[in-house]
Amino acid sequence: xxxxxxxxxxxxxxxxxxxxxxxxxxxxxxxxxxxxxxxxxxxxxxxxxxxxxxxxxxxxxxxxxxxxxxxxxxxxxxxxxxxxxxxxxxxxxxxxxxxxxxxxxxxxxxxxxxxxxxxxxxxxxxxxxxxxxxxxxxxxxxxxxxxxxxxxxxxxxxxxxxxxxxxxxxxxxxxxxxxxxxxxxxxxxxxxxxxxxxxxxxxxxxxxxxxxxxxxxxxxxxxxxxxxxxxxxxxxxxxxxxxxxxxxxxxxxxxxxxxxxxxxxxxxxxxxxxxxxxxxxxxxxxxxxxxxxxxxxxxxxxxxxxxxxxxxxxxxxxxxxxxxxxxxxxxxxxxxxxxxxxx
Amino acid sequence: xxxxxxxxxxxxxxxxxxxxxxxxxxxxxxxxxxxxxxxxxxxxxxxxxxxxxxxxxxxxxxxxxxxxxxxxxxxxxxxxxxxxxxxxxxxxxxxxxxxxxxxxxxxxxxxxxxxxxxxxxxxxxxxxxxxxxxxxxxxxxxxxxxxxxxxxxxxxxxxxxxxxxxxxxxxxxxxxxxxxxxxxxxxxxxxxxxxxxxxxxxxxxxxxxxxxxxxxxxxxxxxxxxxxxxxxxxxxxxxxxxxxxxxxxxxxxxxxxxxxxxxxxxxxxxxxxxxxxxxxxxxxxxxxxxxxxxxxxxxxxxxxxxxxxxxxxxxxxxxxxxxxxxxxxxxxxxxxxxxxxxxxxxxxxxxxxxxxxxxxxxxxxxxxxxxxxxxxxxxxxxxxxxxxxxxxxxxxxxxxxxxxxxxxxxxxxxxxxxxxxxxxxxxxxxxxxxxxxxxxxxxxxxxxxxxxxxxxxxxxxxxxxxxxxxxxxxxxxxxxxxxxxxxxxxxxxxxxxxxxxxxx
Lengths: 343, 504
What we know:
The complex is a heterodimer of chains A (343) and B (504).
Chain A: H1 2-18, E1 21-22, E2 28-29, E3 37-38, E4 48-53, H2 59-74, E5 78-83, H3 90-102, E6 107-110, H4 119-126, E7 132-135, E8 146-149, H5 152-169, E9 178-184, H6 190-206, E10 211-213, E11 218-219, H7 224-234, E12 240-245, H8 248-261, E13 267-271, H9 275-282, E14 286-292, H10 294-309, E15 318-320, E16 323-327, H11 334-341
Chain B: H1 15-85, H2 90-99, E1 108-112, E2 118-119, H3 122-130, H4 133-137, E3 143-145, E4 149-150, E5 157-167, E6 171-180, H5 182-188, E7 198-203, E8 208-213, E9 223-225, H6 226-229, H7 236-250, E10 255-262, E11 265-273, E12 280-287, H8 288-291, H9 293-336, H10 346-363, E13 368-375, H11 378-385, H12 387-405, E14 409-415, E15 418-423, H13 428-444, H14 451-454, E16 461-468, H15 475-491, E17 496-499
Parallel strand pairs in B: 16-17
Antiparallel strand pairs in B: 1-2, 1-6, 3-5, 4-5, 5-6, 7-8, 7-12, 8-9, 10-11, 11-12, 13-15, 13-16, 14-15
Helix pairs in contact in B: 1-5, 1-9, 11-12, 12-13
């Protein structure tokens, strides 16, 4: 009897494991993408534009969905949306592209989860004569109409420029021997690599030679607790005067630790908007964050999709939507306020 | 505690450690040999890796520079032709030329006049501002090439080539042509290279790189930083060498090579300057395993062979030593034993007993007893039953002695029918009991096979004993004391035993 119970337990355990399908590359697809839902009121006779995002449960992508909704209202089209729950789930996005085609999409706005593996499906869809607008991330193919995204190399340079400016404002002299620490969200991400390269590019040409970047670049793998640990590790460096977080998680990690230890002598430059970084910027700290304009990516994307549907051609394939640097001084600028409204 | 094992026999002296010492020396020599071989092999592999990587890097750089040279020649020729035609209206020239772009692999063309007015599309104008392309143009002598950037027009990474030209009445300006970076990447790609080979375009000042070839296709054509692209930090002992390699690049050296380790993986990395792309290098980075697989395989084979040879030698060593030890043992036994009775011979007994008593003398902890034993009327045995029967008696009596005293004493045939026993205690009562037992055993010893033949024969012995250190403090005196006691026993009619008693 005891043996039968053990065997049954093992079988039940195996069955429960098989409930989460595992991909060949080892990534787990926890949930399948939902069917497309309308974003605005659907009206007969209007063109149908489909939006596919990377993560349906992230604030960043919610803002992008809002942009598409407003774009639909502003440019008179029906907008449907869906997306994956995990930013690496390109197979679900591939299925959604098929669904959009089957549903009769007049244009598709896509933020590709995988710039390489999704290219073939993008080619296939584009060759069916459906306009494709890429958002946030470019794909390794020419078969799309235009891509609206942040030029991360430029964004990284702006982060370095802000870091140098704040350090100088904070009284660090050119001759001072100081250190700046960096933290990443993921090692193998094109976006992060380009931001970092941009940072190094500007830093190597503009920072005094005595201002050193710590070669031990921390990586938090997208886990906030780890980001906090990385920040704590970097704070052990005695000459540390600045930290740069290349994404939201890294920035939150830095902001939490800096706030907790009241290290007002350290400049924090990060990416994206969160309560933690906002508290630093609004408080008595030296801090800034770089905001992307994802709302405008999708809003402009809808506008362009309608133009292409109406027979207009685009003369560019890549548009850098630019970033906004938020710090104590720029906080009240109109552009910053407007971008913050959509973050 | 004072067991026989504490005593070293003469032929055991020094023999125990000679084999181990020889084995250690042999192992040390083998170890040194293997280390020397390993060092020379690694040196060979490193130099071969460096040479091969340098060759690959030279090849890639040559291909890239040839491609750039072709582009620059085209641009210089075009500039010369335009200069010769002496256009004065650059807007008109731009409008004409831009319609025809793409003819020689470039994706767009434009002009810069003496007043730094740029004749280009609005997207390109924004790129001039974003990437400070005007500064790159001013480096043209006669050509300069920008760092790669993502083109708004194509969405792909591109670079722009600037060349001096003249227009109007001898005014100086720049002609520029934008090419897809793919043109250079294609040159860098070599089909025969494995996926492990990474080829970067690297900016010396920032350590930023653009991957042209590598195992991770997501990073091809993407900006990255060398610090990050290494994924894991270079081992500490190579940090300085790596910094020196970077310094060479920053100093503008034509080429520089380095070998370093990340974890257990060895890499060879070589950089070569790219013509006209100031501050930029082609870097080829190859893990040692992909270059030296053949020689590494050879090295593994050599070490396997050496390992087998080593094990075989050690086994032979041990087997030969054991054989030798066996032979030695036989010889040793012959030299210390009485061949007839297998008891110690006189020489061995004197040495062993002397050592043992010396040891006891130093420790002052224990006593010992020396027994002098004579077989009674042994001559009569020989006369009556013959020498063979005499030998039989000696053998069996000796066996009885060893049986009774062998566990805690040394038994020796001292000569003829004389036996000496050194017992490792001075307990007279216990020894008396043992002698009584010996008496019984001796009575059982028969010179003949049947009782009829032996008749009334009964083997008896006389024994004189003395205690160390009570009766004597050295072997010679102890023997004299025991002999004295034996004399008294014999005087009293034999077939008995007695202890030495000091005269008052």
